[in-house]
Amino acid sequence: MALRILGISGSLRRDSHNSALLRNARELLPPDVELEIFDGLKAIPPYDADDDDAERPIAEVAAFKRAIDEADGLLVATPEYNHSIPGVLKNAIDWASRPVATTVLRGKPAAVIGASTGLFGAVWSQAEMRKVLGATGAEVVDRELPVVQAHMQFDEYGNLAEDDLRDQLAEHLGALVEAIRAKAPAPEKVTAA
Amino acid sequence: MSATTPATLDGTWVSDPIHSTASFAIKHMVVSTFRTSFKQMDATLEANGDDIKLTGTVPVESIDIELPDFRGHVLSPDFFDAANHANIEFVSTAVRRGEGESIDVDGELTVKGVTKPVKAEGILIGPAVNVANVEVVGVELETKVDKNDFDLNWNAPLPKGGNAIGDEVTLTVHLEMRRKEE
After folding, report:
1. Do residues A11 and A76 lie in contact, with contact meaning Cβ atoms separated by under 8 Å?
2. C or N: which end of chain B has fewer Cβ atoms within 10 Å?
């Protein structure tokens, strides 16, 4: 059965390097692994526990949780703002992490990549993202993929220009796919009586 | 002058901005090397027999980094503090010609208002007459400095070990110099 990975770009910008990185990842996955890129991050409202009510779910939040739940693994591409992850990305993860007992993130294999136009390839925000995902119970692949000087890494079609970087991304994705395959098939969900 | 005239270094020589560069290289992410240069530099060489003096000025704003955020950080007080220290300056204290074209240069380098002694090695070629029948002298020098000695203290630990950037910076100048017009 085909595996499904949900790609989440922490950058909302139309020409985002991190979104481009996810599109490149899609081409580098094995043929039996699909990558869907989530495009609803901007529509997720600021987290407010008063609005976090199972009886009155917010459609945009529910869509994000469902997309995570239906995926076998997550691939998060994050830019770096002030050495950390963008607020919108943290906010979305905060929503998905609730309620703690039944969060869709628990046990979910996840890998993090990141691109920045500077010299460090969002290496600190990737670490932050791994920390945050780990706190939610996700099973985070402990490796980083810093894409430095991102504005110089893509050709006019948005493809990674350097074979080396493409190989590194493929290796990174291989580790995520391995983590997903290593997990036993999820047991049938038991609904409380 | 004709190409057969015995060439002498005596006199004053100034750098040709088109054919001169001042560049630096520094390790980042532990293993990678970042290199860039400054687009402007004024250097002067004065020679009177064995007495040679080399001076140079580089405006830090001429650094060849275009991206606004990257450029803004490098010119901020974390690094060059361009608003308060416009230029990098070099003044030689001793220039020794060695075997062949080799030279050793002692001097004082000022970066961010901090002056430290440095020793550079390289070559001095010429004078020679180029295809445009102009006398030229070539100078290439390299030295290594610790950026922290000049109050460029920014760094950050990487999540998987090591520091964001190295401490050692390799400074290189390539000068093509022509006789100063009187």
Report:
1. no
2. C
What residues does B87 pair with on adjacent strands? B59
Quick count: other Cβ atoms within 10 Å of Cβ B81? 17
- Residue from A78, A80, A117, A120 to probe the interface with B (highest B Cβ count within 10 Å): A120
pLDDT digits (tens, 9 = 90+) for A49-94: 999 999 999 999 999 999 999 999 999 999 999 999 999 999 999 9
| Chains A, B: CB pairs < 8 Å | 35
In order, the DSSP letters of B109-128 are: EEETTEEEEEEEEEEEEEEE
Q: How far apart are the C-alpha atoms of B182 and B180, rounded to whole Å?
A: 6
- Chain-centroid distance, C-alpha B132: 26
Cα of B29 to nearest chain A Cα, Å: 7
* A151: nearest CA partner in chain B: B67
- Give the strand pairing for A139-140 and A109-115: parallel
Q: What chain B residue is nearest to A82 in terms of C-alpha separation?
A: B69
Q: Kind of pairing, strands B21-28 and B32-38?
A: antiparallel
* β-bridge partners, B36: B24
Residues A143, B36: Cα–Cα separation, whole Å: 29
What's the average model confidence in pLDDT over B7-35? 92
Q: Are the CB atoms for A181 and A7 separated by under 8 Å?
A: no
Side-chain-side CA neighbours of residue A123 (13 Å):
21
Asked if A81 is an interface residue toward chain B (Cβ–Cβ < 8 A), one would say: no
For the ranges B17-21, B41-45, B86-90, which has the lowest average pLDDT?
B17-21
Q: What is the DSSP letter of A50?
A: G
Instruction: Say how many residues make up chain A.
Output: 193
* Touching B: A residues 114-133, CB under 8 Å: 117-121, 123-124, 126-127
Residues of B within 8 A of A126 (CB-CB) are: 159
Q: A22 near A172, Cβ under 8 Å?
A: no
Q: Kindly determine whether residue B69 and residue A83, on different chains, have CB atoms separated by under 8 Å.
A: no
Ramachandran bin of B81, using left for φ above 0, alpha for ψ from -120 to 50, beta for the remaining angles: left
Angle between helices A17-28 and A163-182 (to 10 degrees): 70
